[in-house]
Amino acid sequence: MTGRAPGGRAAPLVAALAAWLAAPLAGQPPFVDATAEAGLDFVHFNGMSGEFYFPEMTGGGGALVDYDNDGDLDLFLVQGTMLGPGKTAADAIFPPPAGGPPGDRLYRNDLVAGPGGAPAARFVDVTERAGIVEAGYGMGVAAGDYDGDGWTDLYVTNFGSNALWRNLGDGRFRDVTAATGSDDRRWSVAASFADYDGDGRLDLFVANYVDFSFAVHKICPLPTGERDYCGPLAYDPVPDRLFRNRGDGGFEDVSAAAGIAAQAGAALGLVAADLDGDRRTDFYVANDGSANFLWLNQGDGTFRDEALLAGSAFNRAGQPEASMGVAAADFDGDGDEDLFMAHLTGETNTLYRNDGRGLFRDDTVASGLGSPSWTMTGFGVVPLDYDRDGRLDLLVANGAVKTIEALARRRDPYPLHQPNQLFRNLDGMSFADVTAGAGEAFSRSEVSRGVAVGDVDRDGDPDAVVVNNAGPARLLLNRVAGGGWLGVALAEGGRGAWGARAELAGDPRQWRRVAADGGFASAHDPWPLFGFAGEPPARLRLHWPDGRRRELRVPPAGRYLVVAR
Amino acid sequence: MRHGASALAGALGLLALAGGGALAAQQPAASEAIPRPNLERVEPAVRAQLEEQRAAVDELLADAGAPPGLVAEAAGRLGQLYLLYGLAEASRAAFGEAAERSPGDGRWRYYLGVLAEQEGDLEAAMASYRAVLERRPDDLPTLLRLGRSAVAGNRTEAAAEWFERALAVDPESAAAQHGLGEVAFLAGDWQTAVDRFEAALAAQPEATAVHYQLGLAYRELGELERAREHLGRRGSSPVSFADPLTDGLGQLTAGAGIHIVRGTRAFSAGRFDLAVEAYRRALAEDPTNLTARQSLASALAWIGDLEAALAEYATVLGQRPEDALAHYNVGTLELKRGDLEAAAGHLRRAVELAPDLADAQYNLAGVLEQLGDYPEALAAASAAVELDPQDNAARLLRANLLGRLGRLAEAEEQLAWVLRDDPASADARMSLGTLMARTGRPERAGELWGEVLGSEAPAPIRGRAALALAGLDERAGRLGEALAGYRRAVELAPADAGARLALAGALGRTGRLAEAAEAFGAAAELAPASEQAWFGRATAQMLAGADGEARATLERALEQVPSSLPLGHALARLLAASRDPAVRDGRRAVELARAVLERQPALDHAETLAMALAELGRFDEAADWQRRVLRQARAAGEADERLAAIELRLRRYELGEPVRAPWLP
User: Fold this and answer.
1) Which distant-in-sequence residues (6+ apart) come within 8 Å of B578 by Cβ?
2) A contacts of B45 (beta carbons < 8 Å)
3) Which of A130, A282, B107, B607 shows its CA 20 to 30 Å from the CA of B233?
4) Model pTM score
5) Contact: A185, B388; criterion CB under 8 Å
6) Terminal C-alpha separation, chain A
7) ipTM score here?
8) Which residues of chain A does B37 touch, with a Cβ-Cβ cutoff of 8 Å?
9) A200-259 per-position pLDDT tens digit
10) Cross-chain Cβ contact A317/B238 below 8 Å
C-alpha cells in the first residue's frame, strides 16, 4: 500500500459511516448457522481433565478442500484425543463425542437442491471409506497437491508426529509420512504447501510451537492463586521446518540449509506469499509472545529473517504480541499483500500494511481494527469479501487462553469462550465492527480456533466453517444477496497454480492470490473469488508466479471460470 | 494478611484531599450492585482479604446512616483489591459505587479510567480521565493516560493536546515526549517523530522499546543505517511514568498467586532479579507453593546463583521426589557446577521418570561421556535422537560416542546424516574429519578440516580445525607447517588451552624450550587445573637448565593442584637432583618422594626417593631402595637401557655419590 489517510482525523466520520453501513445488516444477517441442515455433526474433543495441559485448549483447525474433484468443497476436521499420562476418557471433563472413536474426520459435500432449487451443502462423513485413521492429537491441516497428480493431499499437524495423507484419487487416502520423509515430531500447529524454489512442485513449511511435554508441564496461577494455563513463554520455543519437494515423491528437510532452523519461535500462524514483490515465495511466521519472522526468499535456497527492519516483527510500540492466526491479503487494493493477525486479550489485533517492497507499517489504530479486539483473544482470521463489494473483510474467531473472570464467577465449566467478530472493510483503509448485525451465528460464545473459508454452497460468496475447541464445528453460510461475482480457478499443467494472482480491474481494483494457507491451523479454498457491485469490470488479468501475465475478458458474472495456462 | 495499607492510604490521600472533602448526598444501599466473584478456588489468604473487605462494604451499605465518604472509601478499597487480583467486573462496580458516593474524590474515577483502558473501552477511559482533570487539571498521570487512550482511539489531535499539557507540567517527561512522537509517527511526520523519540530516550534511556519506533521512523526517512542501529538496540522496556495510584496497589497484596504472576512477567522480560524478588515474596506468603519455589530456583539459576538455586530445588525434591523436571534442572545445574557424578544421578532419575524428556537424555549423554561411561551415554544420546530425529546436536553426540566405542561405520553414517541435513555444519565436519583420521583416511580428514578452516564458522571452531590440521602435519613429519598451524589455532582461539598445549608441545619437541615454557605457561594461566600445562612448563624449564624457574613453576602448580602426583613427583626429583644447590632441598625431597611412593608405588617414584636419600647423604638407604628398584625392574622385564641406567645410579650410591639432573640427555 502506498499513502494513507492521516491518522485521527477521520475517526468520527468513520464511526458514523460504520454505523450506517452496518445498519442494513440488522434486518438480514449476512451469515446463518447451517450446521445441522448440512449434516455436520463434528464435535471437537480436547481431552482435558483439569490438569491444564497446554495443548488441550490450543487446537484445532479444518480444511475446505475439493478432495474428490467434483467441483464442490469437502471438509476435513482435526480432532483431539485424551491427554496426559494414564488418563482415560473417564477423566475427561467434556466426554468424547458419542458413537464414534475420536479421530480426524473427512466429510464429503454432496450438494443437494435446497429451498427454491438453489444448491445446499450436505456433508457425509466418509472418513472410514477414505481410509483415514488419524488418531494423533490434532492441531491443524494444510492442503495441496504435493505430488502433482491433480488430487489435493492433506498434511495434518499434531501435538506429536504429523501425517501426510496422499490422495489416491479414488476417494481414499494413504499415510505416506514415513515414505516421504515429511514428519515432524515436535508440536506443530500451522503448515503451508508452497513452491519456494520455483520448480513447480509444492514444498512444505511446518510451523512449530513450543517444547511442551507432560514431563515439563507447568501450572501458572491467576493473581488470585487459582490454577490456570501457562502461556508459551513458560516453555522453550522450537524451530520451524522446511521440506523441499524432491520431485520423486519425497521431501528433503532443508531447514538448516535454508536458514529456517536458525531461529526458534512459538509459531502458531503461517503464510506463504511474495511479500517483497520480487516474485519469490516468502514465509511470514506469527509467533506467540515473541518476534514474528519474515523469511525473505533469497532465491538461492536460503531465507533471511527481515522482520525487524520490515516493521513486522513487533507492533507499533515495539512490543512482541501473542500472534495466533495470520492472514496475508491485499486489503487496500494496491497490489501487494498486507498482513493481519489476531492476538491475546489486552493486545489488539494488528494490521500491517505493505508498501509493496516488503516494508510494513502497523496501521491498526487508523484502521479501526484495534479497539474492538482489545477484550478478545483471536485465533482464526480469514479475509473474505462477504458482502461482494470488492473489498476484503475480516472474520475473526475468538476464544481466550486464560480464564475469563466473569465466566468463572458464573461457574462456567470452560470459561474461555468469546463471541466471534466480523469486520467490514469500508474503503480499503478502515474497517467497521459489524458483529452486532451479523446475526445469531456471531452471537454465540464459544472457544473458537480455526476457520476455513470457501464457497461451500457454490452460490458465489464465501462461507466459513468455524472450529470450536471442545465444541461443535459450525458451518456459517453467507446469505448476502445482490452484487455480482466471479470465481477463477487457475491450472498449470493439470496442477493448481499456487502463488499466482488474479487482478480484477474496477473500483476498487481487486487482487486475489491462489493460496490455501493462512488463518489458524486451517486450509481454505485456494481459488480467487471476486465480488462486485453493479456492472462487472471488463478485464481480468492473471499473474503467474514466473512473472508471465495473461489478460482475459470478464465473462458474464456469476460463474466459476477455469483458466489453464 | 495485610501489607502496607497505611502507606498506600498515604499515597492515595493526595487525591482524596484534592477532592475537597465534599461528600455526596447519601445513596441507597447497593450491596448487590457489586458482583460477588467466585472465590471457591482462590487461595485462602486472598479469599480472606477479599471477604473481609467485602463484609466491611456490605455492612456500610446496609447502614443507612453511614457517611457516604466512609462508604466510598470502603468500596474504593474493595475495588482496588478486585483490580489487583484481576477481578475486573467486580472492581468496576466497586469503583462506580465509590465514585457515586464521593464524586469529588478523583481516585475512583481514575481507577475507572484505568479499568476501561485495560478493557479497550477507550471512550469510557477518556471520559473518566477527563472527569479527574476537571478537579486536578495538572495531574500528570491522568494527562498521560488520557493522551495514550486518545492515541489508541485514533484521536491523535486530542492526544497531542494532552501530551503537550503533560509536557508543560513536566518538561522532562519522557512519556509526554514519547506520546508526541507516537502522534507524529501516526501522522507520517517522521522527522518530528524522530525528534520526540530521541527526546524521550534522552530523558529515559532505559526505555529501550523506543529504539524500535525510532528505528522505524528513521527507516521512513530513508536513513537505513540509523534505522538498523536503533532497531538493533531495541529492548522490551517501554516508557514508564510514576503512577502512584496503580503503583501503590502492589502494597495491598495477599497470597502467593499475584507474586507468581509478577515474577513470571519479570522472568519473561528477562528481569531475573525482579523475578527472584517476586517469587521470594510468593514463598513468604505460602512456603509450600511448589510453583513459586521451582520458579525461584529457575530465576536464581539465571542470575548465576547456582548454590541457592540448588537449595531451592532440593526443597522441591524433598516435597516431590518424583518431579522429573526438578531432577533435570538439578542435573543440569550440577553439570554447570562441574559435579558430574551428581549431575548424572539426577539426570538418570529424570529420564527414568520421564523418558521423553529429550533435553535430559541429551544432557545425560554428555555427562556420561565426560565420565567415560560410553555405552550408557550412547543409550541416552540414542534416546534423544529417537525423540527428535532432527536434533542435530544429539545426533552429533551420538556419532562421537559411536566413534569412541569403535563403531566407526555407524558413527560415519550419523555424521553423514547431519551433513545432509545441515551441509554447513562445522561440528559435523570436524567430527567426520576425526573419524576419517582414525580410519586411515587422513587426506579426507584434511579436506574436511580445511573446509571448516576456510568457512565462515566462528573463530573458535576454525581454531579447532587449524589444530587438527596441524596435528596431521606433525604426524606426517611436516614440522614447520605443523608449528604454523598450531600458531594459527592459538590466534583463532586464544582462550583454547588445548591449542596452546599443542603448540607448546610441538615447540618442545623441536627443541625451542624457552618458547615452549612460555606457551605451556599461557596454557596454565587459561587452565590452572591442567597438570599437563604445569608439568610441561616445568619440564621445558628443567631441560633448559632453568631449575630455579622450574621449582617456582612446580611450587605454584602444587598450590593450584595440590593432589597431583606427577607434579609432586617432579618437584621431589627436582629438589633431590637439581644441579643448582640453591634449588636442592633433600629433606623436603624425601618427604615428598615418600608421600608420592605411598600413594602410588612405582619404579620411578622409588628411584626418586633413592635420589632424595642420597642428597641427604644417606647412601646406604639410597642403595637399598635402588637395589629394590633394580630387582623389580628385572622382574617386570624392563628394557636393557632402563636397567643399565638403574644400575649406574646404584653404583653411584654405593660409591657415596648423589645423582644430578638425570632428566638431561
Assistant:
1) B547, B551, B584, B660, B661
2) 225
3) A282
4) 0.78
5) yes
6) 29
7) 0.89
8) 405, 408-409
9) 999 999 999 999 988 888 888 888 888 899 999 889 999 999 999 999 999 999 999 999
10) yes
